[in-house]
Specification:
Number of strands: 25
CATH class of one domain: Mainly Beta
Number of helices: 5
Oligomer: single chain
Structural class: mainly beta
Strand content: 35-45%
CATH superfamily of one domain: Carboxypeptidase-like, regulatory domain
Largest sheet: 7 strands, antiparallel
CATH topology of one domain: Immunoglobulin-like
Shape: elongated
């Protein structure tokens, strides 16, 4: 059983939402392994015992080769595996270090040598497996790439831009999406562990896991994917979350970003105070993150926990069109304080802010002089995901996972997202099971 929870605060209300979550149709977030068992002459060996064992969790699955010597394991969780094959009159075959990825059909053919079954012939699997079972095009972004490649968003899906055929969608609509093979950004199908994760309003990802250490890999299929995925005219992007193993493991990280070394933007350069300061207004972003995973019961039940807190304290700027210094002088000469209610209201709303760029005149008519307007930028404090009692605000993201496997891998995935932003709760829950 695999449970994945994304939440801000664990409450009774959230628990009720999780328990009553409805079943959703989902695509596979796992891979497969197949191959042919043969003897030294190339003749196939039927009824050979094939065992697939996870080197991370110890979970074992077994099957027999058919009359054509073919064996196959479907719905295999991503990870590193060991394959053992035995047949009467032949030496045992063992292959370790077989890496299987989500959405990838792996192949491992075994040629058994004649001899004592107690003798084991051990081979090492190739580091790169060629996919010959399916015509799908795309790529997998594994945990090593997520850890070592730089990406500013902390969302590993951003690394899909490293896959051939994927290009930026920065000037079009959509949340954290991209163009694939020339298609629109809204043509992509985003999944989390095989569960649909599409924003139905503006397209893109509805929920984003921004704890990189909680992501196992990202599977990106750009074309020729199987009919089970469907829906997308662009790519199918599946985020695979991490699970626990037989070893206790975890990570801890801290990120500090400050505006001390930032340059002024073109908008900020319109603010005289910032120009005199020489850099943006004071602002910091601090991110604490950590993960912990391990066994609850060896070879059967595992847990994985993740935590991240993002605190931001900064100021934003906005462009406004207002009077220049000459314009204010003209307005004050025409309508001194208290003479015109509209002029007094304008003074109150703008606080006397004077434009410093792009001046233009607006004629008043009736023999009155024209007013000179222009562009100005004004700063305002920003509270990002404000929490009670904080000045700058904070954001919290939780990831909780519990995976259960016994015999042939079976499982269930449940995940929920809750974010607090400007006094508004945002929730997303999904449930899936497989056998």
């Amino acid at each position: 059983m695999q449970w994945v929870l994304e939440m801000t605060h664990f409450s009774c209300k959230a628990l009720c939402v999780l328990l009553i979550g409805g079943s959703l149709m989902a695509q596979s977030s796992r891979g497969s392994l197949s191959g042919v068992v043969s003897d030294p002459s190339g003749a196939t060996i039927p009824a050979a015992a094939v065992e697939l064992r996870s080197q991370d969790t110890g979970v074992r699955r077994s099957t027999l080769s058919n009359d054509a010597g073919l064996y196959r394991f479907d719905a295999v969780d991503p990870g590193t595996y060991e394959v053992n094959i035995k047949a009467g009159g032949f030496r045992s075959f063992a292959s370790k270090g077989m890496v299987l990825q989500a959405g990838v059909a792996g192949t491992l053919d075994a040629k058994l040598e004649v001899g004592d079954a107690q003798t084991i012939v051990e081979v090492s699997s190739a580091a790169v497996q060629l996919q010959v079972e399916a015509p799908v095009r795309g790529g997998n972004i594994d945990r090593m790439q997520i850890a070592q490649l730089p990406f500013a968003t902390r969302n590993p899906v951003s690394l899909a831009l490293t896959v051939p055929g994927v290009s930026t969608n920065r000037f079009a609509s959509g949340r954290e999406t991209f163009s694939v093979n020339g298609s629109r950004g809204r043509s992509n199908n985003f999944l989390i562990d095989g569960t649909e994760n599409n924003d139905i309003s503006i397209a893109g990802q509805a929920f984003q896991i921004k704890i990189p250490d909680a992501v196992q890999e990202v599977n990106v299929q750009t074309s020729n994917y199987d009919a089970e995925f469907g829906r997308a005219a662009g790519a199918v992007v599946n985020v695979i979350t991490r699970g626990g193993t037989n070893r206790l493991h975890g990570t801890a990280s801290y990120l500090l970003d400050s505006t001390v070394d930032d340059a002024l933007t073109n908008t900020q350069s319109l603010i005289p105070a910032l120009v005199q300061r020489g850099r943006p207004a004071p602002g910091t972003e601090q991110i604490w993150a950590g993960t912990l995973g391990g066994p609850i019961r060896k070879d059967q039940t595992f847990f994985f926990l993740g935590f991240q807190e993002d605190r931001q304290l900064a100021q934003n700027t906005t462009n406004v069109t207002t009077l220049t210094a000459n314009g204010w002088a003209t307005l004050n000469s025409l309508y001194p304080q208290g003479r015109n209610k509209q002029a007094d209201l304008y003074r109150e709303l703008t606080s006397g802010l004077a434009a410093t760029a792009n001046p233009f005149n607006v004629a008043l008519g009736n023999g009155r002089p024209a007013l000179e307007f222009g562009a100005a930028a004004t700063p305002f404090p920003r509270s990002w995901y404000p929490m009670r009692g904080t000045a700058g605000g904070r954001r919290r993201e939780w990831t909780c996972m519990c995976r259960w496997s016994r015999g042939r891998s079976t499982g269930r995935t449940l995940w929920c997202g809750r974010l607090w932003r400007r006094r508004r709760w945002w929730n997303r829950c999904g449930w899936r099971c497989w056998a």
